[in-house]
């Protein structure tokens, strides 16, 4: 039996209503246990002056897969320039916006993150992505399956297949790729791009299938609801980055018709067309709509200044942005019959009007959306900025004077166009604990994570209380993963691997033969080759399966 | 004049990484070097004798990687073979090897001189991993042959190879000169933007090179005066050359000059 007792720390556990209670946290055999459950010889960690929280969870960060790998190749000079510091458990790999697997795990763990989810797993890439996620130490992972541009689904919708059949298809795909949730990227738009359409709004038709994004979205939202998945549709909507897309986003919220919907990197979808430059903040309108509709959750996708790489399945928007690539190179590719891939390196500059306003829009969203349980802290790593900027972002949210200081450096016209200074709100420590831990666990249906109640997984973090919140969240004092100490004083001290999470709703077995036939007819390989088995996940350890209640 | 002399104590059991070792270093025996997966002091593997005067001789080679990498000044002489990345990214000074060298010899150097009496591996003077530009200055002379992709993405400087080069030489060459006295491997000069290849025969040039006829180039005389290494290749008073322009597939402005002796 292994046991660890963390004493003298203030426990901040919003999921269980604990706001800085002075109590011991005891982890026995990898699970949080009652205070008296620890044996006398348990390892004791003195957390005096520290804040104890559950391990942080990143709901949306592109850490693995085809696009990450291609970004590394495209930005090979970054791999050379930024090397991981040598240490007993680190020292291989590097990069920042194109970080390698091992470095990703190390940097996340040092900040107190113990679970990170890859939000865009293109089905034909599933095997590669699982292999790469298994190479990331310290973190629990899982993928969201990209649907909505796959020819099979569009074909189902175009030929008037029943919702039941679509549900079976979605469940079959989830089981085959061993994924956590459904992601939609530009519903129907990537497919339309392949047939030479260069824009597709919510109610425009994909010319090949005659299907609108609204129809794709509503079909899948319903499928997720009926399959009983915990995580709602993870939607990267239409018109990403297009000025005036706030209206599309509002229409999308209405299109959900009260069913649960998660809008991802909503900052990129909150642009108006006011002002001389026809680019303005739509944050107020979007925040108002989110506040009004309790079925909507969002993650922000905050823009952070500096060099990064944007990598997305949304080739339609990446193709549009190719001209502003810095450095000047980009790449777009077709991904089987599932989706596409576009890589555009980009540097966000605080003296650039658009970038500066994007930065302000993200913060406005964070501050104007009232319920911290429905907004999550992300930069859409690496698209808005690398995840290593999270501590800086937390400081921006928690410290108004710091925020105003940073605001003063922005492009002058952008300062004029933004209302950020009028917002007085500062995030409390408890709210930070919600947006980085409790709320992501809840929205993903991870009942034993994101809190420190008895029975929760032993992912525990101790931060040293510091007025400078950036310094506080940069390096955790202690991080426990499954009850083992992996970080001590901000340094990695042990190597532990996490688990892969999946959902596996039932489906009608007739879908097996239907999919066999589809693969034989349309794909370059057999369905049985496509399907992943548990032997292929983390060297045969398999996945953690989350039950779903299939609503009848 | 001998300067420092390094003599290997015994045969190496693993590869030795001499990157960062410079001839002017005081207390060289204490300098940390890579040995297999571990780090050791240089004095554990080599006897160090003589005094530092900017010249360093390694008596006997073998599994020595990154000799003279990032060299700034001074001279390194190796009596034997060396491994990969000889002199890579050096900015000045000179390296003389009387044996052969491995891959990435003189990769990305921007100055100085590298002379190898034997042959070299792939990627001579080329761009290393994570770089878009190869060697940008300096002089490299290889008496023997060179491996694949010699001078890939070369940006400047002069490279002279006495023997043959393997396929894909001068791929995506940006600028600079490569002279090859022996045979050329297939597909040489593919994607070449500017720069010059001095050759004995056009066999092996990429398909994008087009014959531009015989020329009388007085320029060659000037070149010979400026570069003794090229003089050794071209000979005195040569002006006649057959010129090929390429790579026209990418509208490149490079050229291959066929000069016979």
Automatic annotation (TrEMBL), chain A:
InterPro entries: Amidohydro_3, Formylmethanofuran_DH_asu, Metal-dep_hydrolase_composite, Metal_Hydrolase, Metallo-dep_Hydrolases_sf
Top EC class for this record: oxidoreductase
Keywords: Oxidoreductase
Keyword Oxidoreductase listed: yes
EC number: 1.2.7.12
Segments passing through the bilayer: none
Boundaries of every Amidohydrolase domain copy: 43-487
One protein family per Pfam: Amidohydro_3
UniProt keyword annotation of Oxidoreductase present: yes
Gene Ontology MF term list: formylmethanofuran dehydrogenase activity; hydrolase activity, acting on carbon-nitrogen (but not peptide) bonds
Database matches in PANTHER family: COLLAPSIN RESPONSE MEDIATOR PROTEIN, HYDRANTOINASE/DIHYDROPYRIMIDINASE FAMILY MEMBER
Protein name: Formylmethanofuran dehydrogenase subunit A
Originating organism: Chenggangzhangella methanolivorans
From TrEMBL, chain B:
Root EC class: oxidoreductase
GO BP: methanogenesis
EC numbers for this chain: 1.2.7.12
InterPro entries on file: Formylmethanofuran_DH_suC, Glu_synth_asu_C_sf
Gene Ontology MF annotations: formylmethanofuran dehydrogenase activity; transition metal ion binding
Gene3D superfamilies: Glutamate synthase, alpha subunit, C-terminal domain
Record has Transmembrane as a keyword: no
Range of residues in the leader sequence: none
UniProt keyword annotations, A-Z: Oxidoreductase
PANTHER family cross-referenced by the UniProt entry: TUNGSTEN FORMYLMETHANOFURAN DEHYDROGENASE, SUBUNIT C (FWDC), TUNGSTEN-CONTAINING FORMYLMETHANOFURAN DEHYDROGENASE 2 SUBUNIT C
Protein name: Formylmethanofuran dehydrogenase subunit C
